Amino acid sequence: MPKRNIAYKPVDSLKSPRFSGVRTYMRLPHGTGLEKADVAVFGVPFDTGTSFCPGARFGPAAIRDASSILKPYCPLTDVNIVENISVLDYGDIDTVPGYMDDSFVKIEAGMVKICEAGVIPLGMGGDHSITLPLLRGLTKVHGEPVALLHFDAHSDTISDYFGRDYNHGTPFYWAIEEGLIKPEHSIQVGIRGPLYTKDALDYAKNKGLEIITGPQLHDLGLRETIKCARDRINGQPVYVSFDIDFLDAAYAPGTGTPEIGGFTTHQALQLMAGCCVGMNLKGMDLVEVMPAQDNAGITALAGASLMHIFLAQVAKGLE
Ligand code: MN
Ligand code: MN
């Protein structure tokens, strides 16, 4: 029996087959009625910040498509999402293709609207540049910086690319510089891609961020890594940013800058579940799904499923 009055629930797939209907995330209702939502899923179809292979603008559509097979009960976390939280597919934030600054203004404004309604944002990229305006919007409403839990093959803490401040390799440099995150409670996990220089990692470390590299994670194992992340976050309000290239290129070929030596979907699900349970979750984004290079939709399915774990842990918090 539902413990709360849940306004938004997925279409009943025992009455309407999963392959029917207009695609929304997890077959949830599409609308803008934030007042009845606990979580708003939304797309940011923007890839102007891409440095290599573009196409993440089609990520939200691919994730929605893949998500139609997700079901409400999550065995990994032992939670029925729809019995505990009301989740809305809020649609996409409109951007201006080719124009970073104009798009950032729109993305930040969209995030502010969701956060001001007291709703937890769950965004789908788009390339990783979108996380900067999302964090700007979140902290504007929250009133102070948040802890960051960042899964990625890349640190994304370079100061500039091609003489410009913003692209998908720079969001966390600016998040630190603008005081959007608390470095002492933030952690980057899975970092392993080759870099132009070591400076990017040194910058993050010098600013107080903890980095667990890909090789370190392989050595530490899941349990120890989860413990490190939880100790680091230490109950602070936390924002999760998940770049799908955290996964090995074998599990996530559909992304703009794939890296080998990474992690399986099993490991990613366990890490997400273990790091997020019982945390004060302020929001999440899942970025860099690029369907044009995807095989059999496995990257989009991985993205949709990692978002599902986030929803499950928000739901568990309200059980
Ligand atoms: Mn990356
Ligand atoms: Mn990234």
Write up what this structure looks like:
With 319 residues, this protein is an alpha/beta fold. It is 34% helix and 15% strand. It has 9 helices and 10 strands. A hairpin with a 4-residue loop joins β2 and β3 (79-80). The N and C termini lie close together (12 Å). The protein binds manganese (II) ion (2 copies). One manganese (II) ion is lined by residues 128, 152, 154, 156, 168, 243.
Give a brief description:
This protein is 34% helix and 15% strand.
Fold topology:
Elements: E1 39-44, H1 59-66, E2 73-74, E3 79-80, H2 81-84, E4 87-92, H3 100-116, E5 120-125, H4 131-142, E6 147-151, H5 171-177, E7 187-191, H6 199-206, E8 210-213, H7 214-233, E9 238-243, H8 265-276, E10 281-287, H9 298-317
Parallel strand pairs: 1-4, 1-5, 5-10, 6-7, 6-9, 7-8, 9-10
Antiparallel strand pairs: 2-3
Helix pairs in contact: 1-9, 3-4, 4-5, 7-8, 8-9
Bound molecules: manganese (II) ion (2 copies).
Structural class, from helix and strand content?
alpha/beta
CA-based gyration radius: 18 Å
Arithmetic mean pLDDT: 96
CATH architecture: 3-Layer(aba) Sandwich
Instruction: Sum up the overall morphology in one term.
Output: globular
CATH topology category name: Arginase, Chain A
- Terminal CA distance: 12 Å
Largest sheet: 8 strands, parallel
**Percentage of residues in DSSP E strands:** 15-25%
Low-confidence stretches: none
Task: Give the tags.
single chain, 319 residues, alpha/beta, Arginase, Chain A, eight-stranded parallel sheet, two-stranded antiparallel sheet, 10 strands, 34% helix, globular, binds manganese (II) ion
